[in-house]
From TrEMBL:
Domain DDE-1: 22-88
Protein's recorded name: DDE-1 domain-containing protein
Pfam families referenced in this protein's UniProt entry, alphabetically: DDE_1
GO molecular-function terms, A-Z: nucleic acid binding
Species of the source: Amphimedon queenslandica (Sponge)
UniProt superkingdom: Eukaryota
Length: 149
């Protein structure tokens, strides 16, 4: 079985290099937290073989140094909380119109999975329409400045 590194990370970096017209040896950067399972000798060797550099964000610093923690997580949570609030309020309003049908709102996984999937697709569209949110995370973490120098 191929590893996450081979199937996803290395392949993604290779595709991005090609899409950007960069040579296959163009250095790339991956950011890890301190989880030791991703820093094995085998993984580090595969990164090196593919000219992918890595940095490790120290414990308790991801909120300042991981680009998505800096910029994406908060608006994503707010977006999803808002979607849930709107959905729940709509369900309550529907029950209030028909006063005889006051029943607990179904929050079972079977009910919420397709709704949550739809919200995740809407969240993707939200960030796609606002790329500056993601870019600002890389700027705030100091990564764009490093890559430009």
């Amino acid at each position: 079985m191929k590893s996450y590194l081979e199937v996803i990370l290395v392949l993604y970096v290779q595709e991005k290099r090609t899409a950007l017209g960069l040579p296959g040896t163009q250095p790339a950067l991956v950011i890890f937290d301190e989880f030791k399972g991703q820093l094995t000798d085998k993984i580090l060797m595969q990164l090196e073989e593919n000219n992918i550099f890595y940095v490790v964000v120290p414990a308790n610093y991801t909120d300042r140094l991981q680009p998505l923690d800096v910029s994406v997580n908060r608006p994503a949570k707010e977006f999803l909380h808002s979607k849930f609030g709107e959905w729940y309020a709509e369900k309550v309003a529907m029950q209030m119109k028909d006063a005889g049908s006051m029943t607990p709102i179904n929050l079972k996984l079977s009910e919420m999975k397709p709704i949550g999937a739809r919200w995740m697709m809407e969240l993707y569209d939200y960030f796609k329409a606002k790329p500056e949110i993601i870019i600002n995370g890389f700027k705030a973490a100091g990564i764009l400045n490093i890559l430009k120098s």
